[in-house]
Amino acid sequence: VNLQEFELSYTKEECRKKLNLPIDKKILLFLGYLSPYKGPDILVKAMPKIIKEVPDTELVFVGKGTMICELKTLSKKLGVKNKVLFTGFVDDSLKSLYYKAADIFILPSTMGTESFGIVNLEAMASNIPIVASNIGGIPDIIKNEINGLLVQPKDSEGLANSIIQLLNDKSLAIKLGDNGRKLLENYTWEKIGDMTEKIYKEMVL
User: Fold this and answer.
1) Mean pLDDT over residues 26-38, rounded?
2) CA angle 106, 109, 115 (to 5 degrees)
3) DSSP H helical segments within the chain, as ranges?
4) Which 3 state secondary structure label does DSSP give 55?
5) How many Å separate Cα 65 from the centre of its chain?
6) With left for phi above 0 and alpha for psi between -120 and 50, is residue 153 left, alpha or beta?
7) Per-residue pLDDT tens for 38-63?
8) pLDDT digits (tens, 9 = 90+) for 153-190
9) ∠20-23-28 over CA atoms, to 5°?
10) Are 112 and 140 in contact (CB under 8 A)?
């Protein structure tokens, strides 16, 4: 990850104004392709419980994908249509604004083939806490209760509970976000470049 891309001079409120997002709401962010293996439907299913406990919460889906119509239908069926926003495709230049505008980043993946997720690194670069599935390569990056919370895949109730916990515990959310930013130092292009160079030199020698 290139840290400079996420070191914005704008405040959270300014980012929200630029993106036409509500200033006075708690915002959950999903950023990525809307497909079954990413579990966006699990997140929508978690929303009724989240809204019941923390009514001023809204969910923002950033990205396109095959599930967008299904997710809109599901949102309407569950009575959370007005709490879920779909932005569709956004330019890469806007992604850092969405991260900084959010309170929590969510990656509810459902398949064991999931890698650690570049989006998790981007969220860490933006100092926001993460709730993600305990599956695939995600636990290699997200350490439970250190820089995020891990939940079992396909468990919408467990996902809701972890999100609610962070929404209600601001000090925990800040701690996880700060820890994530510190851990990210191991995943900068400079650090990875040095490690790769070291491996090549060891192979040659």
Assistant:
1) 96
2) 105
3) 12-19, 40-53, 68-77, 92-101, 118-125, 156-168, 170-183, 189-204
4) coil
5) 17
6) beta
7) 999 999 999 999 999 999 999 999 99
8) 999 999 999 999 999 999 999 999 999 998 887 655 45
9) 85
10) no
The backbone torsions φ and ψ at residue 24, rounded to the nearest 5 degrees and listed phi first, read -100, 20
Given a contact cutoff of 8 angstroms between Cβ atoms, the answer to whether 44 and 76 are in contact is: no
Residue-level length of the chain: 205
For residue 127 the two structure tokens come to 């100092």
DSSP three-state, residue 141 = coil
Name the residue among 76, 7, 67, 6 with its Cα closest to residue 48.
76
| Number of other CB atoms surrounding residue 181 within 10 Å | 18
Beta-bridge partners for 30: 61
Residue 126: left (phi > 0), alpha (psi -120 to 50), or beta?
alpha
Enclosing H/E stretch for 106: strand 104-107
Helix 156-168 and helix 170-183: axis angle, to 10°? 100
Nearest residue to 85 (alpha-carbon basis) of 54, 52, 62? 62
